[in-house]
Amino acid sequence: xxxxIVTGMSGAGRGSALRILxxxxxxxxxxxxxxxxxxxTKVFMAERKTIDRVxxxxxxxxxxxxxxxxxxxxxxxxxGYHYEILFLDADSNVxxxxxKETRRNHPLALQGRVDxxxxxxxxxxxxxxxxxxxxxDTSHMLVRELKQEIDKIFxxxxxxxNFFVTIxxxxxxxxxxxxxDLVFDVRFLPNPYYVPELKPLTGNDSEVYEYVMTTEPAMxxxxxxxxxIRFLIPNYxxxxxNQIVISIGCTGGKHRSVSMANALAKxxxxxxxxxxxxxxxxxxxxxxxxx
Length: 291
What we know:
The protein contains 10 helices and 9 strands. By secondary structure, the chain is of the alpha/beta class. The protein has a 5-stranded parallel beta sheet, sandwiched between helices.
């Protein structure tokens, strides 16, 4: 039987993750008191012929029980009950924004401030986060992207590292993305903007992609960039990071940066990390002209 404990920061997507697992055929229970986990496990082990996949949601609402969770999990391991922990996380500023948008109360906030509640929750959940088999940072994820990552882990059985990479194209004239970890400038590449038939297209179009990426500077840069990223990620993981944002910029964020971001994503698609590509400024010229 596959037994998954789904936990993490409030507002990081634990409920969405449980719904995704339920759609995959998991028997899901949310917010069960921690002290009942051993009894529940025995029940499901006895029913393994009819129920072979279980997902249990645990969050900070189980605050008193969390102190006993470590001992309970250790006892389960000694008894031969295998479990996996999926931990949903997100940047504190993102969580604050989500609470403001939904107007929901944080379980620890009561009449206090949300930021203080999130800080306290992060401290309380630190021990279980260290035990997690999978950590997904949902700061920049849509629900469909969360589903893709959960599919990789629990459906496709992909070897999965607790690390998520966002490749972000942007235009320098609109500013460097504030959440960038690595920033690369590809304004040295041939610019399709000055080719009349390519100007209205983007790096998502094959004509522009071929124009940019078949040049020798682009091919050399991509090769060396990929080698550097492949070197950096394991070292970032050793230092405790669980995500990076790789930002690639050109003047307007429409042609060269989009092409290079897509090319890098193709090179990285077989690496055992979560991966997504965003093109922040790809439509901004069109929006401005239309306005």
